Amino acid sequence: MTFEYAPALESRSIVEIKSKYGHFIDGKFVPGKKYFPTLNPATEEVLSQISLGTTSDVDKAVAAAQKAYTKTWSKMSGKERGKYLYRIARILQERAREFAVLETLDNGKPIRETRDIDIPLVAAHFFYHAGWADKLDYAGLGHSPQPYGVAGQIIPWNFPLLMLAWKVAPALATGNTVVLKPAETTSLTALLFAEVCQQAELPNGVVNIVTGDGSTGATIVNHPGIHKIAFTGSTEVGKKIARAIASTDKKATLELGGKGANIVFDDAPIDETVEGIVNGIFFNQGHVCCAGSRLILQESVADEVIEKLKVRMTKIRVGDPLDKNTDLGAINSKEQLLKIGELSAVGDAEGAERWSPACSLSEKGYWFAPTIFTGVTQAHRIAQEEIFGPVLSVLTFRTPQEAIEKANNTPFGLSAGIWSEKGSRIFWASQQLKAGVIWANTFNKFDPASPFGGYKESGWGREGGRHGLAAYLKTGKESGAK
Question: Any idea which residues carry the catalytic annotation?
Answer without folding.
Answer: 255, 289
